[in-house]
Amino acid sequence: MFNPERPPEITATRWLNSDGKRTLKAEKGKVVFVAVAAMACPGSLKYGLPQAMRLTRAFSDKQVAVLGLHMAFEKFDEQTPDKVAAFLDEHGFTLPVALDKPNGEELPQTMKDYELQGTPAILLFDRQGRLRRHYLGAVDDLRIGAEIMALLIEDKDSPRDTSIALERKLAAALLNPDDDHTHSDSCGCGHDHAHSHSHDHADEQGHDHSHDHAAHGEPGHVHGPDCKH
Q1: Which residue ranges of the chain lie beneath pLDDT 50?
Q2: Distance between CA 181 and CA 148 in Å, rounded?
Q3: What 3-state DSSP class applies to 174?
Q4: CATH number at residue 135
Q5: Number of domains observed in the structure of the chain
């Protein structure tokens, strides 16, 4: 069962725009934002990757690591590593991007490990490497910026009680986005999406953990709102 307290590593066959392999473990101590994208998904081009680039210009890379994760779970011939590299270069997306490891006919490895529903999506990790947010679809810059700032306020070894208190303050201050997103049947899915609802997880010490999802439907067959094929 997926545990956001101890999330798995990104499994990549190749990293683009990077001198070498990047790992979540190596980024501990920073807040980590991962833009989950697919070049075959217009929502990734319109929302996810441009937002990630804006974050690289807004936050110091010494405090916030902004990464991309490209998942090819359909249209494989159109999303080869070379074509993804050309796509990133064409659109000026210079952030480090991991190419998720394919599993033949199945979902790629990281997509499967994280139970991801599709693209565009966001994974947000705290300084201790815990997954604190998982969104499917477009999320407003102000909300993401506020959530990153809240995680930056937490110390690198912040006790769980402190994290919970900050979560509650943030939840009280931020209004939940619209929950009536519906994307077109032309996306090939036809599912409705509630934008963000919480699930409480507890580790063996009994701590609660907020892990926000915004997805319904079968994995690999859902794109974010405004994704039209």
Answers
A1: 179-229
A2: 24
A3: coil
A4: 3.40.30.10
A5: 1
